[in-house]
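Sequence design from tokenized structure. All designs in this work follow the same two-part layout: the structure record, then the generated sequence. An example of the structure record is given first.
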């Protein structure tokens, strides 16, 4: 019986470091004790070079976040590049407001995700969907996130549940991971603090400029794993129970005066303390 899982880090967490010195960043990630990496962009590196550097530092390129519209525009080229690197999973990381539930285009978005899932499957890659909190609106009494997963067969689409956003969306992360037992191969570990109402400006993603900060910005903050509000022991136990293969640390922004590299090291050190 497994008592832990391998731990990867979303390289987006240290994106400025990766942009400045990609190889040195991968080397540092490996030295911290991470076994794998999840990409969100390749920093102008060719797939063969990325693959070689992962091999050099004994990091498994487990997955990648790839924009849905990029895959739709050039499915063979974009997905083929990640197939060359050797990723096992590609995750749809985010959908723009005009694609979200309530926009009138959500059904079309689901159809587009299914179309891409068929392409990834043909290349031996499993498609995942990485949630935020905006999928936790109900459509005819059912969360939009569940509508998505119920609309596409599990062999085509599996989950990459982001436990921070599940919590912000109003659900218990551990229970939600268990809900998708057998369909949750990769679980995102993300910690946070939040007081008062949910602020605007929480999302900051590749290709999307940070939203203007508001007076409520300090009401929400990302934290290293084990340093925020999340019940991480419960989430880790749920990942094991659900049959996950990997957990992935992601911290969108550093906190408390830490650098991004310091933040992901704190996360890895915490997980080591938990026996992971």
């Amino acid at each position: 019986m497994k008592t832990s899982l391998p731990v990867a880090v979303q390289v987006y967490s240290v994106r400025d470091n990766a942009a400045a010195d990609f190889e040195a960043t991968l080397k540092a990630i490996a030295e911290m004790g991470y076994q794998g990496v999840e990409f969100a962009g390749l920093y102008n590196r060719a797939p063969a070079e990325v693959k070689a550097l992962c091999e050099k530092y004994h990091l498994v390129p487990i997955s990648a976040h790839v924009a849905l519209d990029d895959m739709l525009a050039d499915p063979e080229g974009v997905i083929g590049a990640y197939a060359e690197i050797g990723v096992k999973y590609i995750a749809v990381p985010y959908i723009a407001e005009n694609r979200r539930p309530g926009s009138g285009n959500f059904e079309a978005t689901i159809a587009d995700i299914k179309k891409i899932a068929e392409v990834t499957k043909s290349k031996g890659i499993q498609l995942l969907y990485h949630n935020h909190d905006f999928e936790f609106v109900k459509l005819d009494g059912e969360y939009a996130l569940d509508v998505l997963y119920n609309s596409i067969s599990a062999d085509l689409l599996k989950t990459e549940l982001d436990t921070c956003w599940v919590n912000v969306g109003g659900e218990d992360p551990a229970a939600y991971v268990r809900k998708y037992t057998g369909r949750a191969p990769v679980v995102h570990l993300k910690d946070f603090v939040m007081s008062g109402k949910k602020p605007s400006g929480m999302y900051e993603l590749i290709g999307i400029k940070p939203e203007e900060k508001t007076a409520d910005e300090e009401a929400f903050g990302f934290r290293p794993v084990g340093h925020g509000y999340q019940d991480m022991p419960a989430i880790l136990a749920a990942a094991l129970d659900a049959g996950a293969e990997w957990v992935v640390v992601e911290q969108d922004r550093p906190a408390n005066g830490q650098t991004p590299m310091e933040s992901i090291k704190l996360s890895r050190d915490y997980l080591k303390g938990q026996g992971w």
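The chain has eleven helices and twelve strands. We note this feature because it recurs in several other targets discussed in the main text.
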